[in-house]
Amino acid sequence: MIYSFALKMVKVPEDAEEIAHDAFVKAFQSLGSFKNKCKFSTWVYRIAFNQSVSHLRKKKLDVVSLNEPRFSYFELSETENVLSRLDEQERQTMLQKAVDKLPDDERGVITLFYLQECSIKEIAEITAYSESNVKIKLFRARKRLWEMLKNTVPSSADSVPAGEKG
After folding, report:
1. pTM higher than 0.90, yes or no?
2. Domain holding 20: CATH number?
3. What is the pLDDT of residues 98-139, one digit of tens each?
């Protein structure tokens, strides 16, 4: 699970293996500092998250705009309708490509919430973000995903065969 999480964060299998290995070594070396204030898995995820973020900072070469992109109205039910027109494999592929394009912090939060099924509270403990900040990052990540996906899926008018249009 730690390897899968690291792979979602860094996208390179060899780097994910190294991060997972380093996280377990660090966890083993720090067992004495584990205070049972959270679940053990949450504690190990936090170590893996920090290792992943450190790794990404070291490898960061491209320039990122400081301006937050503006988003149009976000409608979750519309996203579900659009995605329902695709088969399962297409949905998985498109969604994974979109998640991979998210900023590191949002990709980590989305991965922890949806793939690792961590609660908001657990994500806050893992990332050291406040619970409200985790909710904001989840919301922003969902909006970004919507913006990326809405332009790649054919509209309902496009999916009606030519002979059946109005």
Report:
1. no
2. 1.10.1740.10
3. 888 888 889 999 989 988 888 999 999 999 899 999 999 999
